[in-house]
Amino acid sequence: MIKLVILDLDQTLIDTIHRFHLVFNMVLEEHGAPQVDWPRFIRMYSDDTLDQLIPGDSRSFWVEFRRRYCSVAHPLDRAYYGAGRALEWLRERGLRAAVTTGRECRPADVWRELEQHGLAHLVDSVLTMADCSEEDELTWSRTGLIRLALGHFGVDSSEAVFVGDYWVDMESARRAGVHPVAVRTGFEPEHRLLKHGAKAVLAGIWELPSYLRQVLESST
Questions:
Q1: What is the per-residue pLDDT across 5-35, written as a single tens digit (0 to 9) for each?
Q2: Beta strands in 69-140 (DSSP E)
Q3: Helices 17-30 and 38-47, packing angle to 10 deg
Q4: What is the pLDDT of residues 127-151, one digit of tens each?
Q5: Contact assessment for residue 180 and residue 170, using Cβ atoms and an 8 Å cutoff
Q6: Which domain holds residue 45?
Q7: Coil, strand or helix: which one is 79?
Q8: Is residue 146 within 8 Å of residue 140, measured between CB atoms?
Q9: Each residue of 44-61: pLDDT tens digit?
Q10: CATH classification of the domain holding 189
Q11: Domain tally, the chain
Q12: Residue-by-residue DSSP string for 63-88
């Protein structure tokens, strides 16, 4: 029986891909590398090859990137269609909702963004990389955050679902023993999401209620 739904934030609940491009270029420039234009960026983002543009140590680059993410906004930031309804559906069925993010910032910063997008009142907990000390060889791993969420709500991994847009999200969920569900709003190819453990690949967060309804019905 599902008791907890753990959700990724960026490119899952909130569309911040233009902010990602902006911050990526800011950090690139600070590292002495040329900026990347939008068409090339989005192609390499989808191919998961952005590391090729990073001079030197990519891990330190991404640490700086995720620290910077909450301090920058973009006028095109927006909640995805159906995000509020999906969270309402969870609440109506007594399921808890935890939001996790690879951003290394204060949870209060994320709560403020959720409030701006009209989602905060539908979320039970926010966990960021600032809360997590667990090391992992995968740069954007959520395994530690998923385990923190499970402990916070006192639920077993078999009672939780993780929803994300990136192949590392699926790998993280698989390692933590929770049910991995992917959304395509992060430009990730379906075959890569499935390869890394996704049990289902949805077009977007708006399809989550219908998918979970099937899961809940099959478990009764």
A1: 999 999 999 999 999 999 999 999 999 999 9
A2: 78-79, 96-101, 125-128
A3: 100
A4: 998 887 655 556 678 999 999 999 9
A5: yes
A6: 17-71
A7: strand
A8: no
A9: 999 999 999 999 888 889
A10: 3.40.50.1000
A11: 2
A12: HHHHHHGGG---TT-EEPTTHHHHHH
